[in-house]
Automatic annotation (TrEMBL), chain A:
Primary localization class, coarse: other
Protein name, as recorded: Dehydrogenase
Annotated GO CC locations: cell envelope
Species of origin: Brachybacterium phenoliresistens
Family of the protein in this entry: Belongs to the prokaryotic molybdopterin-containing oxidoreductase family.
UniProt-listed SUPFAM superfamilies: Formate dehydrogenase/DMSO reductase, domains 1-3
Lineage: Bacteria, Bacillati, Actinomycetota, Actinomycetes, Micrococcales
Entry's Gene Ontology BP terms: anaerobic respiration
Subcellular location per the Swiss-Prot or TrEMBL entry: Cell envelope
InterPro entries xrefs: Mopterin_OxRdtase_4Fe-4S_dom
Every 4Fe-4S Mo/W bis-MGD-type domain range: 43-99
GO terms, molecular function: 4 iron, 4 sulfur cluster binding; electron transfer activity; molybdenum ion binding; oxidoreductase activity
TrEMBL record, chain B:
Domain Molybdopterin dinucleotide-binding: 712-832
Name of the protein in question: Formate dehydrogenase
Metal-binding listed as a keyword: yes
Annotated source species: Brachybacterium phenoliresistens
Keywords: 4Fe-4S, Iron, Iron-sulfur, Metal-binding, Oxidoreductase
Amino acid sequence: MSRFSPLEWPVLRQLRGADPLGRGSAVTSARTRATTPRTATADRVVRSICPYCAVGCGQRIFVKDDKVVQIEGDPDSPISRGRLCPKGAASEQLVNFPNRVTTVRYRAPHATDWQDLDLDTALDMIADRFLEARRAHWEDLDEKGHPLRRTMGIASLGGATIDNEENYLAKKLFTAAGAIQMENQARI
Amino acid sequence: MANADCIIVQGSNMAEAHPVGFQWVMEAKARGARIIHVDPRFTRTTANADKHVPIRAGSDVVLLGALINHVLTEELWFREYVQAFTNASTIIDERYQDPEDLDGLFSGFDPETGRYDPASWAYRTAQPADPSHAHDDASRGETAGAGGPPLEREPVQRDETLQDPRCVLQILRRHYARYTPEMVEEACGISREDFAYLARSIVENSGRERTTCFAYAVGWTQHTGGAQFIRAAAILQLLMGNMGRPGGGVMALRGHATIQGSTDIPTLFNLLPGYLPMPMAGTHDRFEDYVESIGTKTQKGFWADAETYAVNLLKAWWGDAATPENDWAFDYLPRLTGAHGTYQTMMAMLEGKVDGFFLLGQNPAVGSADGRLQRLAMSHLKWMVVRDFSMIESATWWKEGPEIESGELRTEDIGTEVFFLPAANHTEKAGSFTQTQRLVQWRHQAVPPPGDAVSELQFLVELGNRIRERLAGSTDPRDRPLLDLTWDYPIDEHGEPDPESVLREINGFHVSGPDAGRPLSSFAQMRPDGSTAGGCWIYAGVYADGVNQAARRRPGQEQDETAAEWAWAWPANRRILYNRASADADGRPWSERKKYVWWDAEQGRWTGRDVPDFPVTKEPHDEGDPEAGGAAGLSGSDAFIMQSDGRGWLFAPSGLVDGPLPTHYEPVESSIPNPLYDQQANPTRVSFRSDLAMNAPGVDGLGGAAEVYPYVFTTYRVTEHHTAGGMSRFLPYLSELQPELFCEVSPELAEIVGLEPYGWATIVSPRSAIEARVLVTRRMRPLPIAGRTVHQIGLPYHWARGSEAVVEGDSVNDLIGLNLDANTQIQNSKVTACAIRPGRRPRGPALAELVAEHQRRAGIDADTGDEKVTIPPPAQRRVHVPGEAPAPPTEDPTEEEDR
């Protein structure tokens, strides 16, 4: 192994090589030399936008084996010019963080803990409850006889962190159902 | 911002909260611009500024009003700009009375309802107003879209000499006459030298050759008069000619990836896509009344086509079921009866009136004001659905929330069913975000979501499918809107709806005719006859030619500064709004240096470095068709094309519910008597009568709780966390960078209270008490105000109690009360009265006892501070108002005492 060669003594490396001041290649370990950035080994790079504040920095998402392995700033973005703040730079963890929950959980009334639930079952239960709440708090007319055609039994909060297309469908569905109490962070 | 010669950051810590955007401030500085930070705290923004101007939180209108007064008195305003493009010369109704006449109220206030009738703020017209066109809900912000209530198209009266005492400019002079540098010193704690520096910086960097820019964030919006803070900056910028020009403007720095998009395509109670209002029961029963209330066909500018925008939306949602015979299914829309904002909804939830609640990426247990009230409200729900990445506190409050710890709630007693559904994140789905400058940017999907995680798109489509299946065959008319809904989005093999198909619907398309099926290329192609459909008129063009324009990524380095081929900005890919004002009345650039959009006489069209925000072939001296509404009615100098008079509004005759001009009111929990008027606080503010939301006004005679809650705190963000922490406190890197809640206090306050650096402090408000580590720092500076010293405390609000996140800490929003701006229904988070003492807070039931003991000593209850009008009889008035002798007031303000 070359690291046992006397020629690999750091001082000699420093004097022999292209790094006489010992600030770069002369002082790297074999491990460092063998390391390649995750960006170099990625299968593909996908263009995206940072999910945190509203500056809208460009992101490049590096993917290997269908896993996100790194996220970097997009130098092509005329807004961010390749930069990311600590949150944007940490956003790979937003994909792979250890506390992320990826299964449905359900807390029954008065229960002291979560239980697992199948996604389809959960959606069926939510749809049933949606219609029940809609019915239970339906208002056809106000006290003066003006049409209301609404339900006050259902509310929703959120939207500033999801997509325009998602907000569009949320507003469309809730409005068609008569559910007017729909809000997001823009109010706060 | 890079093109500005002076940047005033006020109501924002831009370097901390928008660090990458702040590079453009630094770019401007490198090009020679002056940067001034007006803020209660010395922050990272201040460290990069040329000058820090410390200000008492909540006093911004005094400062901005004094700048307005200064430029008017010293005749430093940009006369040619103001005469050409603003309503300075417009004459206001004879009945208008100013707060200078009424000791802090405008004419038209009704103490019974706590609302204004804005009729007396209107432009004077030749004929008296036609009562059949009166909009009796104009006093309520929730009824108007972006344009505010419309103006009738009657010729307004103007005095181009600007001498008429009833013209806007003269009213403005009188309104702000007492907003002086001395008043600034007294009310804001800003020295006369600092004021002079600020004024000089703006004046020297405005005009033909130079521009000044303002930047703000929630440091302006989160006040009981927040909308008026922004209005005050807009008035100053109009007077100085800094609107519609490069390096000018009033920049809103918004805090979430698509908080702009979720306002444009709103998940908000009062709006439909494209700033169309939700209809109001009684006022908008008929489609005709609804569209007339947004914009009349005879008014100038682009709101005259409100009917077209509304028809296209209804057609997009209800397809073939939307016909001319049924007014495009207008009756399918549910109706409002007032404000139904998130705080009103939480109050209804507390009373058991709401059964189900969806949280789509929001964490109100931590992020909304009065956290205890939020959590207790959720405990009254039958069920809730939390869609997020991890177990945020709004999903776990029933198990380990602060009320479980204190014993106030017992898990076994809580009947709320909770569904936690894991969400796909930004890399796991495709879609668009709209950032803070209206730029719609597309994200491509990088990987599939893990496990049960799905996008909101898939969740909503599947929920909608299930609801519609269950109602199939229903003959109940209330189910028609769901059954007739266009809801047939293409689904891929993973069950994911095609987000581009939704973007195409938002953009709009031809329904019939030779181009049937083709996407629209601009909202100008929309028709009110059902031949086109489009879900959000201002986004028309984002899918022009069937191409996703939001996904365009021509590198910035290959483009000019406008970078028009990077993504797509609404409307029409225009990067600076109202850019007609970047040229003079004759259509010539104000200067070579600030050249942006101008009239090309040879080509007979507007041209320049951006998409002109003006009818492109209308000559600068075109007088406009006096008979026609819409774009044809605009004159060649009506640069503010969305306004019904084509002018920038120094004075807002409609659209605001708390007055046509920004006026200084004290925050509800201020301990300083309003130095300008006997009217202490904004009389239109929204508050809630609840033991969970008590207030502690600090002025004698108005509650006098100043001795118990002698200090004020203001909340803010740090770079390493994101709002309520759902996307940051669960990540190891970010948690390590900012592990713990702290409070910033000045050395002087630390000395008074006995706080040790890095020790603990307990902060008590009328709502709750929290503990935080103590950071003693000169970044906080005591301010001399009205003969006393105001100590301000800084508190970042990202932490919460619970075991799921990497780091935990008390939740600062638990301290904040519910006092809302009536225009926006946004709460004051920036000025709250508190006590502070050394040591940790008590645990268990002793916490509630501590809070109650303070409430008792202060003598406050659920009603304290709810008096809307605080003007005493004339003999007892504290403030001498030297206004001109008014005509006998329509309402005697002395009768409003004690209300």
